[in-house]
Specification:
Structural class: alpha+beta
Strand content: 25-35%
Strand order of the largest sheet: 1-2-3-4
Number of helices: 2
Shape: rod-shaped
Distance between the termini: 118 Å
Order of helices and strands: HHEEEE
Helix content: 40-55%
Number of strands: 4
Length: about 160
């Protein structure tokens, strides 16, 4: 009887090692799949962050340009609706590290049209409509953001 038990034990030696290796392989495959998914999520989050930084750079530059813009029309000049005026390129740097460029922003101002008179006095002035657009490009990930606003200047009619 003792001989038969030893025979069975001798036949099963190494099966524990084989089962452990199979389990280790299965755990490794699951770990690699999870890690690959995590890396993909990290890349997606980084791309979204780059786009947000680029969009905020475009928004900041267009707000600064709008605040600094001085458009005066005295009624003698006729703005050309097709002409691009006040084109400017601005580099935006990080506030924490001034050597790190966040984006390059190209802004343009277009004259669009002359609106109707304002109503209280026909000969006093009209609203001249302009459009400002900013295209920001991040150098690191080639993220591009477009930002467009409209504004008007009250001035005498050019007609």
């Amino acid at each position: 009887m003792k001989i038969n038990q030893n025979k069975i034990i001798n036949q099963q030696q190494g099966s524990t090692l084989f089962i452990c290796l199979v389990m280790l392989l299965a755990i490794s495959i699951v770990s690699l799949a999870g890690m690959k998914n995590s890396v993909l999520e990290l890349v997606i989050a980084n791309n979204k962050q780059q786009f947000n930084n680029t969009f905020q750079a475009a928004e900041a530059v267009i707000d600064a340009r709008l605040n600094a813009l001085s458009v005066t029309l005295d009624g003698s000049e006729v703005p050309d609706a097709e002409k691009t005026t006040l084109a400017q390129t601005t580099d935006v740097f990080s506030s924490a590290d001034t050597s790190k460029k966040i984006a390059t922003v190209n802004t343009r101002v277009f004259y669009r049209t002359e609106g109707p008179s304002l109503g209280w006095d026909i000969n006093k002035g009209v609203a001249h409509h302009f459009q400002m657009e900013a295209v920001a490009t991040a150098p690191a990930k080639n993220a591009v953001a477009n930002y467009r606003i409209g504004f008007y200047v009250v001035a005498p009619s050019t007609k």
